[in-house]
Design goal:
mainly alpha; 11 helices
Length: about 270
């Protein structure tokens, strides 16, 4: 599931600027450190193995290739989209900010394709199965203006990021480290929240339109993710427990519930009703 992502935890950049709006800042902090946070358990099974050991299982290897291929194409799509969004930017400073983020996305794309090459997989072939679904998603959700573009990046990419972080828990240590690194926040989350909240404060009517837009994006993103997973046997098998340490069906349901809950919090951070 990758809709071409914004980065990446969708909440706070580790080195980003503080939000100007107190409520948005408080919400993002609560998302960064949840009340029910617990100490991360020691990895077991595949999660305790390195790539060399885990990849001896053919189905697991195929699932990881799919995962990296989907992520790589998502990064490439994010680069292209941010470059396009820069054309809608109202100021030169905004244009430069998006250009910087696009550069970060392309760097992540290169890391993923380098990894695919290192494990003797042709990157284009790994990405190809996901190109049509992602391209279709972007065509169906083309923003009509600058603010819709920001909401799309923030909402859509954060959903994708949440999904990949959930999956990363079950990956071998080498693959997990790479996935989490490319999910690192480029600062677009803070940028989007600041700009959208400022626009709503200037004209509250904007909030209703953007809330409807965000709900549509949520539905389209989840539908697209489900289609992609369903079409890739190794990836879907890993998610529902057919590969050692995969999710069972009940856990898949809980995973999507957590993703939906995080989306609701992000909507609040934007000043929008979920």
């Amino acid at each position: 599931m990758c809709v071409g992502r914004i980065h990446r935890n969708g909440v706070m950049s580790r080195t980003g600027r503080a939000l100007t709006h107190p409520r948005g800042r408080a919400i993002l902090r609560s998302m960064e450190t949840p009340d029910n946070a617990t100490e991360t358990p020691e990895p077991t099974g595949i999660a305790a193995q390195d790539w060399a050991t885990a990849s001896e299982e053919p189905q697991y290897r195929a699932a990881v290739v799919d995962l990296l291929g989907a992520l790589a194409y998502g990064e490439l799509a994010a680069f292209e989209r941010l470059a396009e969004d820069a054309k809608l930017a109202p100021t030169l400073a905004d244009k430069a900010e998006l250009a910087k983020m696009a550069s970060a996305e392309f760097h992540h794309f290169e890391r993923l394709t380098d990894r695919l090459t290192a494990i003797e997989v042709e990157p284009t072939g790994a990405m190809e199965p996901f190109a049509k679904a992602l391209d279709d998603f972007h065509r169906q959700t083309a923003p009509s203006d600058w603010l819709e573009g920001l909401v799309k990046a923030y909402v859509g990419d954060s959903i994708a990021s949440d999904f990949y972080r959930e999956v990363a828990v079950r990956l071998d240590s080498d693959t997990r480290s790479l996935v989490l690194a490319v999910l690192d926040d480029t600062g677009h989350g803070n940028f989007a929240v600041e700009k959208v909240r400022a626009a709503i404060e200037a004209d509250p009517r904007v909030g209703g339109r953007l809330a409807l837009w965000a709900r549509r994006l949520m539905g389209e993103a989840l539908s697209q993710a489900q289609r992609v997973v369903a079409d890739r046997d190794a990836l879907s098998t890993m998610l529902v427990g057919g590969v050692a340490d995969g999710f069972d069906l009940a856990e898949v349901g809980r995973m999507f519930s957590r993703i939906t809950e995080a989306h609701t919090k992000r909507m609040a951070a934007l000043g929008l009703a979920a």
